[in-house]
Amino acid sequence: MFAAPMLPRGRGRVVSDSYLTVPPTHDDSGTKARMWLIAQDTPTFDEDDPPPKEQVASDAVVNSAIGRRSRKADFSCTLPGCKATFTAKHNLHNHLNSHYRIRNFKCAQCERDFGTAHVLQRHRRVCKGTKRIRIPTPGGN
């Protein structure tokens, strides 16, 4: 057998390529077969988790991204009702993490969390090291 690689953790449990639900066909390197076996044994989300966000980005953001593309989108979101497409697999993973509210990157100074490493790096340039406290407003707004 082989050792399972460390997979990113999200909201206290492992997140995997669990969309690999059908065993791969012939693969010379065997990588796809190994990843499929790992995905079958990897827990993803608990049943008591909140439902995924239906919309992650506004229509304006989606249209802007599509307009910048120079390549064909080979990856698409698998959630019902979401028509988002991507040219790179890592962008699909980040998108799915947004749907499920997974934020694996935390600022050591202020403890805010972020969905991607580059957004955390951008935050670190301006972080003052103070924790944000949300004060409820009258009327709940």
UniProtKB/TrEMBL annotation:
<dbReference type="GO" id="GO:0000978">
    <property type="term" value="F:RNA polymerase II cis-regulatory region sequence-specific DNA binding"/>
</dbReference>
<keyword id="KW-0862">Zinc</keyword>
<protein>
    <recommendedName>
        <fullName>C2H2-type domain-containing protein</fullName>
    </recommendedName>
</protein>
<dbReference type="GO" id="GO:0000981">
    <property type="term" value="F:DNA-binding transcription factor activity, RNA polymerase II-specific"/>
</dbReference>
<dbReference type="InterPro" id="IPR036236">
    <property type="entry name" value="Znf_C2H2_sf"/>
</dbReference>
<dbReference type="GO" id="GO:0008270">
    <property type="term" value="F:zinc ion binding"/>
</dbReference>
<keyword id="KW-0479">Metal-binding</keyword>
<keyword id="KW-0863">Zinc-finger</keyword>
<feature type="domain" description="C2H2-type">
    <location>
        <begin position="75"/>
        <end position="104"/>
    </location>
</feature>
<feature type="domain" description="C2H2-type">
    <location>
        <begin position="105"/>
        <end position="132"/>
    </location>
</feature>
<dbReference type="InterPro" id="IPR013087">
    <property type="entry name" value="Znf_C2H2_type"/>
</dbReference>
